[in-house]
Amino acid sequence: MLEIKNLHVKLEEEDKIILKGVNLSIGAGQVHAIMGPNGSGKSTLSYVLAGREGYAVTEGSALLEGTELLEMEPEERAAVGLFLAFQYPVEIPGVGNMTFLRTAVNAQRKARGEDEMSAGDFLKVVRAKAKALQIDAEMMKRPVNVGFSGGEKKRNEILQMAMLEPKMCVLDETDSGLDVDAMKLVADGVNALRGAGRSFLVITHYQRLLDHIAPDVVHIMADGRIVKSGGPELALEVENNGYAGILAEVE
């Protein structure tokens, strides 16, 4: 599904190298988790995949089902099936949640040469998906993320993901600032979207999220590279012993 090869990235403003040769292969239907100390490059990887400005790719590639993402504009990456859930979802005052969702869904359908979804069909689908995520009707009427709690913002992002039906979902510390109940609700939403045609890259600091979203593979990132990969037990090792032992192994 996603194939990242020898990815080198620098921060343009500071001319600082952040990613120093990331290699990552995520198969269709797989869930991979990336953990690592602060400053290791985890969030930078998600930003670069999504096409955020301010980062210069100096070497390497990122292929989604064989298509080079790094040569595309952000909206083109979304149209081919990439979705990024932010650590801190942005507020969009003056734009209603329903309007935003329908515009996004139809923009992607149009980019793929599909017919736009009618108002009636859209309402039917969005109400069913919102109900499953315990998002009430009042929340749907409000401007995007304005006045939402941390948990509501994250649930709203999972709703966006459910409506857009991406192939590759990147969750950048989506557990940040969530209480246990909100995290479980978000995790349930993610798990409901798991399937053979959709893969996930979950970036997190904490094992607790991975208790709810069981990953197939866990990667440890340090100093701009993936230094170790393994099964879910690797996340438990980090939880119990921290990163020091793992980093000592690879030095």
UniProtKB/TrEMBL annotation:
Pfam families: ABC_tran. This is Fe-S cluster assembly ATPase SufC. One of its GO terms (molecular function) is ATP binding. SMART domains: AAA. It comes from the Bacteria. Gene3D superfamilies: P-loop containing nucleotide triphosphate hydrolases. Residues 2-248 form the ABC transporter domain. Keywords: ATP-binding, Nucleotide-binding. Belongs to the ABC transporter superfamily. Ycf16 family. It comes from Fertoeibacter niger. InterPro entries: AAA+_ATPase (IPR003593), ABC_transporter-like_ATP-bd (IPR003439), ABC_transporter-like_CS (IPR017871), FeS-cluster_ATPase_SufC (IPR010230), P-loop_NTPase (IPR027417).
